[in-house]
Prior knowledge:
- It is a single chain.
- With about 250 residues, this protein is mainly beta.
- The protein folds into 2 domains: about 20-55; about 95-250, Sandwich (Immunoglobulin-like).
- Helix content is about 10%, strand content about 25%.
- The protein has one helix at about 20-45; strands spanning about 95, 115, 120-130, 145-150, 160, 165-170, 175, 180-185, 195-200, 205-215, 230-235, 245-250.
- A hairpin with a 2-residue loop joins strand 6 (about 165-170) and strand 7 (about 175).
Amino acid sequence: xDNYEYNDSPAQKQGSRIELWDILSIFVLLITLCMGVYFVLxxxxxxxxxxxxxPSDFNLNAPPTPTITAIQLEPTWTATPFxxxxxPTLFPTLTVVPSATPFSLLPPTETPxxxxxxxxxxxxxxxxxxxxIIPHLQGVxxxxxxxxxxxxxxxxxxxxxxxVRLAGTLNGKSIGTNGSITTVSGTSTDYGRSGxxxxxxxxxxxxxxxxxxxxxxxxxxxxxxxxxxxxxxxTYKDCEKNLVIVRFKKNR
Length: 252
């Protein structure tokens, strides 16, 4: 039998140790974790100093911007006659942006007459026109007579929804069934967005201060309270003055 010599010593048992690749793997994991935490912080606090490109106008607490929609009268809306024993259901007072009038309410050769109302919120200007220059009255000629006008604030912006009352007598007869007629500013836009109109008849009749107009409040518990003094007007048999224009303007 052959003799064998075993010169190789038994393999020594290797203890557990951290290799270079293990160290690199741990380092990469730490960097990945730090980057994840960084991006989470930038996402939660975008305006913090750690964000190199913070938003310029970002505001989490900014309230929403409201949009105001102007209330407009319905096309088929009709005024409710004013009664001292009944509160009229009318639109609230609304101040809107002034708009251009398609024609001049005051003739260039006529100076309006101012009715002073120092204690009332509104004063009035009275002038006279030929009725058929108004778009919806074209062609009426001398077969029409009436009173019309508008209501504006101190800046000449139209005020819609105020009551306008016409009272008194014409040719010895009372106006309306109870001696007065009431309409609302904004019901006849041919005289402006706050225009109003009263028809007196189909034949021009002269009168000397027997008719008057008055502006009335329509808001809440103050409904029916006067906003102007009585504005007395004259009428003429002249066909070129068969339309009386009364323009109420709020005092400063």
